[in-house]
Amino acid sequence: MRSRNFPxxxxxxxxxxxxxxxxxxxxxxxxxxxxxxxxxxxxxLTGGAIAVFAVVLVIQSWFVSEDDVTLIPEGAEAADGSxxxxxxxxFVFGILGATLxxxxxxxxxxxxxxxxxxxxxxxxLGGGRLRAALVFSPIVSLTIYALxxxxxxxxxxxxxxx
Length: 162
Prior knowledge:
This protein is mostly helical. The protein has helices at 6-27, 41-63, 90-125, 130-151.
């Protein structure tokens, strides 16, 4: 019998629950009278996309064994020099910790500073170099901020700067 990729399946189920929760919460956002697109559109799209990709991850993990796929960046090593495996690795905990920290500090320091720190840490956690993180994180943060603030006209948290 072929082994399933249960860590990815569990991660897919967690993201499926998150996507469904976002969809349910987005349905409760009241629309602005007279506007064809309301403030609930982007959370609905985001929740739907998360749910769809989570279902894809669950289906893929059913057909692909854990040995065929890894969450660890290529070339990463554990502290003892061995190659880490499984769901509980420093890389996964680093991503989860950075995401949790971003959620907690965003109301205080705003979207732009949080996105800058978050993308910087994700690049470094993913095995990127310091120079790449210093170049990539401001470009991505400013692009996302401009897209939402000026393109979609969605206000983002300003934190202490606003």
